[in-house]
Amino acid sequence: MGMSDFCRRKRSGVQARTGGAPMSLMVREQAFAAVPQEVVVDRLRPLLSPRELEVAQLALSGLPTAEVARRLFVTVNTVKTHIRHILRKTGTESRAELVRRLLMEEELAAGKRDPVTGFLPRTAFRRRALDLMRKHRGQGVSLIWLEAQGRQRLSVVERVAADLAVAEALSEAVRAPDLAFRWSEDQFLGLLPATDREVARTVTMRLGLWLGEWASVSGCDLLFSLACSSSLEGLTSPEALMEAAVRRSGEVLEDIA
User: Fold this and answer.
1) For 6-26, how does the pLDDT look when each residue is reduced to its tens digit (9 = 90+)?
2) Structure pTM?
3) Domains of the chain, with CATH numbers?
């Protein structure tokens, strides 16, 4: 799938977002009720005030705004204000988007593949990296660190398009479906077996150029920060590999700018 495919997907996504009938109350309640209340509390408690957390629990359960207001003994406008604050603090544009994010984070924490990119979750990284480091002890294992800076500013459609671009580019770079990982919403990892840092650096630079060109063509306001590290540098654990790459994050973009 090339860059033109991403553009087509983006256009179709915009059409889907702006067209069609509003989501029915029944469908909306089914979608929102899919988020367990303990997930809402665990994920959002660090971000929200106690009152906002109460509103989030009710609003994300599928209740209409008027019913949330009735249960909390406040006005509808007060609930709407709380919801605006919740969306702003979580970097989302709607309750539906917030639900999707919570479900994705829960799936990643549970060890499931990311539904958009198909990448493995962060929980699978350490074991996979250790296996490769043992197998390729003499040849080395390299790590690519990729961060999509500014992703939170994008619309829902643009975020999906950016994720798909990263999925294509990083999958092509590592050439195996079980060597790419989604570390967080904005951060991704790739493992390169039997490579030293110079080879990894070349791959990383090509990856950065491709993503930079994609961002320019698609019009997405994104900066991709990339770096790499290798076990042949004396890095003997997956954690050391990642820490070294994160410290260097951004140097590849500076080199190719």
Assistant:
1) 344 433 333 323 233 333 333
2) 0.59
3) 22-109 (1.10.10.10), 120-256 (3.30.70.270)
